[in-house]
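Is this the right way to post structure tokens for a design question? Let me know if I should format differently. Anyway, here goes:
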């Protein structure tokens, strides 16, 4: 979620044209983007609107990592190509290690999903379209109000009976926001998943579009007494440079993250692009708190557009 704000004036529709995502694939922050995929042979799609307006920047734009994380969720919910698959299906990329046994919830429709720093909400909306029982898209109030919440509305036809998809403000480190999210998570019935084996945490990795997984280490012996931890936490492209000498936003990010990941049952999916030293700093923090359980997944393993031949190098 990084951009250069040099010479960018305060809000005006005219000035918003200076805000352009530093992406390889999605390079327009003003047009709707549609993510298409198949689930059990049925064609599905999620459409999100974007804005380059300064008051929501950079959260109002779609970043490549969101698309890649969405592809990860689709792969996790898609059987591997079989010998009887069509030639077209066999050409679809598939990463077998993403479906390693014992990592993901067995029944997706019983999942609760929390996305931190959701921006336009693509990844969380794909999780919901795949059938997650509860999906919480969270970001700063202005991003939620102007971008994420409207995108939930335009995709509501994707959601089935009994599903809840909510966009709500969550400023990292804000106890009131955290408590509001925990209350919603605690309100859902998790009895159907209580009998399944404990799940381990997944963390998505850094690096140019790399994805990484991890298992949460014990965090001060905390117990999930309130049953308010989500099944899956999504975090994509939240490493942006902080000014030298200024407090890092990583500390408050982890303060919030660890309050929602108090046991080894929550899968944490983290994706980022190595743009700057701050990216390496954030990866170090993830390694400090989580044990890797899926080897890093590079962008080109999930999308042909990220192959070096297609990137011009």
């Amino acid at each position: 979620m990084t951009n250069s704000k040099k010479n960018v004036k305060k809000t005006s529709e005219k000035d918003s044209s200076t805000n352009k995502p530093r992406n390889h694939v999605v390079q327009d922050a003003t047009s709707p983007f549609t993510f298409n995929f198949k689930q059990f042979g049925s064609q599905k799609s999620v459409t999100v609107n974007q804005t380059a307006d300064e008051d929501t920047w950079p959260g109002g734009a779609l970043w490549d990592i969101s698309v890649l994380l969405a592809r990860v969720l689709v792969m996790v919910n898609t059987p591997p190509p079989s010998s009887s698959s069509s030639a077209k299906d066999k050409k679809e990329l598939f990463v077998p290690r993403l479906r390693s046994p014992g990592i993901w919830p067995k029944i997706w429709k019983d999942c609760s999903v929390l996305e931190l720093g959701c921006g336009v909400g693509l990844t969380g909306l794909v999780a919901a379209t795949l059938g997650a029982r509860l999906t919480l898209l969270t970001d700063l109030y202005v991003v939620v109000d102007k971008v994420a919440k409207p995108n939930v509305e335009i995709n509501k036809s994707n959601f089935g009976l009994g599903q809840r998809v909510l966009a709500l403000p969550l400023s990292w480190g804000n106890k009131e926001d955290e408590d509001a999210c925990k209350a919603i998570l605690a309100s859902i019935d998790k009895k159907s998943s209580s009998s399944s084996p404990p799940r381990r945490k997944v963390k998505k990795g850094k690096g140019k579009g790399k994805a990484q997984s991890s298992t949460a280490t014990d965090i001060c012996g905390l117990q999930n007494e309130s049953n308010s931890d989500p099944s899956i936490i999504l975090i994509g492209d939240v490493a942006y440079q902080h000014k030298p000498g200024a407090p890092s936003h990583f500390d408050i990010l982890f303060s919030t993250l660890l309050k929602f990941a108090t046991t080894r049952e929550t899968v944490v999916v983290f994706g980022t692009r190595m743009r700057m030293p701050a990216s390496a700093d954030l990866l170090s923090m993830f390694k400090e708190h989580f044990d890797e359980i899926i080897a890093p997944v590079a962008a080109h393993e999930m999308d042909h557009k990220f192959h070096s031949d297609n990137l011009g190098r």
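Format looks fine. Someone answered above. Worth noting: The CA atoms of residues 25 and 305 lie 7 Å apart. The first helix runs from residue 64 to 76.
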